[in-house]
Structure formats: C-alpha cells, structure tokens
Amino acid sequence: MSSYRTASGGRSSNYEYVIARVRSRRASLFDDDDYRKLVRMGTSEIARFMEETEYETEMNALGARYGGSDLVEYALNRNLAKHFDDLLEWSEGALYNYIARYLRKFDAWNVKTVIRGLYAGAESADVEDDLIRAGEFGDKRIDQLLAASSIEEVVESLDDTIFGDSLADAYEVYEEQDVLVPLENAVDRAFYEMLLDGLPSNPEPDSATGLYVQFLQAEVDFRNLRNALRLARSGAETDPTEYYIEGGKLFDEQTLAQLTANVEGLVAAVRDSTYGDDLDAALSALEDAGNLVEFERALDAALLEYADTLSNRYPLSVCPVLSYILAKEREVDNIRAIARGREAGLGPDEIEQELVIL
C-alpha cells in the first residue's frame, strides 16, 4: 500500500455507507464450523476449500507460483490488504482518519516481524511471507526493511518514523541483554502513543471520538494485561512497569506491577472493572486456561467480544468498522495457523488450541 491520503477537513464522515459495506463483508467471514472443517483437511484440501470462498481471486492469481501453506499465506495476506484498502477507499472525513490511524498497527507488525526474522537468522523470503502490507508503509519502505542485514540497520532505517526514538532507546537494552522483548515493546508503545496522540482522554462517551477512544483504551488495557500475564507466567524477575503502555483506563503502572505476581488477582481486577459484564465468559476461560497460549487466545476472544458489544450498542459509529478489522484479522490468523499446523503434521485438537474461537 502506498502512503495514506490526507482526508479533507471539509468532508463529513460517511458512517452509514461504510458500515453497510462492512456488514456485507463481515457476513462472508469464516465461522467456527468452517475452522473445525479446515483443521481436518490437508493443505491441498484447504487450498481447494479457499478457492470456493471469497479468497478465490487471490488463490487463482497466486496458484501458478506457490503451493501448500505458502499459497494459503500469500493469498491471506493479499486479501487482508485488499479489504483494508477498500475500507480506506470508502471512508471520508474523520472516519477515514480513525481507520488510517488504526491500520498503522500493521506497520508495527511488519517492523516486529523483520526484527524477529533477523534475530532468528531466517531467510528474507520467509520473513516476507509473514508481512502484511496494510499499513502506511509503502513498498519502498518495506523492501528497505527486508534488505537490512542487521537489527541495528532496521533501527537506523526507521529513524524518521514514529518508531525511531523508542527503538533507538530499546536497542541499547537489546545489546546488553540479547532479548527481543525491549524492541518489540518499544514498537508497541510507539504505535499506541501515536494512536492516542491528540485525542481527548475523557471525550463525550457517545460521541464519535468518544467511542473511538473507548475502543482504543480497551485495546491498550488488553495489551497491558497480555504483557502482565506473560510476565506473571514467565517467573522472570523483570520490572513490569518497563512494559507498561499508557492510555488505558484499567491499570496504572503501580497496580499492574502488583497484579503481575498474581494471575488470579489480575482476572479478578478485570472482572470488577467496566469490562466485567461484557467479558464474563471470556474471563471464565482465562481462569480455566491451563497455559499461556490458552490465556492469550482467551484474551484475543475477549477483545473481539468487547468490540462486538460496542458495535451492537453504537451501530452507526466507528465501532463496527474496528470490530470488523479485528474479526478479519482473526480469520486470517486462524486460517494461517491451520495451514501451518497441518503442514507440520499436527492433529486437529493440537491446532484448535492455537485458534481464536468465540
């Protein structure tokens, strides 16, 4: 995708039109029954199944060059970028700006993916398979990242972006400790700071800006909760405040640091919060989860559930659009996990543990 256009300040947001289009797209997403069918298929069967869905165009265009899980992954990434390009194409005014700002999450994803690839010594082509060209970075910037021969080179190449300062500081820690967490967290922090920059912290709750902020605050809360759960389960002697992202409303730094040592306390804190009623079922899953992967899958499901709740309460707002973005991401992540799992010889039950199913 090329750099985003600047929305005209004189144009009003066209919520009804965009949400009508989004509802149509949402209706075509795979459901849980589709995932349960897919986990029992081989990779060639998965490819044939996808050829008969709305992925047909991408599967046919790429089928001559790729096969197996590679074909599935390229088709997924191309389809995802196409759908999010469409969102921007349809949108006007403040709605366009809200969506464009949020889609920069894929710039963050791509930066982290390139850094992880370099750290693991992966081939550039394998790293490129995992990139999602749906953010603001154009092809030139992404090609520059892929061409980098070291993590330091990646950090230097991003000096003029929103990630520049945070990554430069984190790189010093990375050099000392040789772990990626400081770099990945720096990328996340830079993204969420940009996301909330210039937005009022306490806007009118039912206003367009208020709903956008409410959704973003929830995502920051869930990101902080995810980091806290990881630290709590890891047993590492790490200061949790180093991984705290500002902008949420559920935790402050001190509270999060205290709860990191107590998984039950973390879940109880969320249950007693403004998210409690909406997330009751997901929180029960969090309590029942036996390992970190299950915790994180339940957390992803909880954020989806919260986004859907906001969408139902405020059907003519940015919330249905953001909820659709999360749902589309979930579809792509689930299909990718199934294709990779089947190619690796995993059984259906093993793969289902990797999926976000509501």
UniProtKB/TrEMBL annotation:
Short name of any one Pfam family annotated for the protein: vATP-synt_AC39
Provide the alphabetized UniProt keywords. Answer: ATP synthesis, Cell membrane, Hydrogen ion transport, Ion transport, Membrane, Transport
Q: Where in the cell is it found?
A: Cell membrane
Q: Tell me, in one coarse class, where this protein mainly resides.
A: membrane
The protein's topology relative to the membrane is: Peripheral membrane protein
Q: Keyword rRNA-binding on this protein?
A: no
Return the SUPFAM superfamilies for the record: V-type ATP synthase subunit C
Superkingdom of origin: Archaea
The signal peptide here is none
Q: How does it assemble?
A: Has multiple subunits with at least A(3), B(3), C, D, E, F, H, I and proteolipid K(x).
Function per UniProt: Component of the A-type ATP synthase that produces ATP from ADP in the presence of a proton gradient across the membrane.
Q: Which family does it belong to?
A: Belongs to the V-ATPase V0D/AC39 subunit family.
Q: Kindly provide the name given to this protein in its UniProt entry.
A: A-type ATP synthase subunit C
> What high-level taxonomic lineage is stated for the organism?
Archaea, Methanobacteriati, Methanobacteriota, Stenosarchaea group, Halobacteria
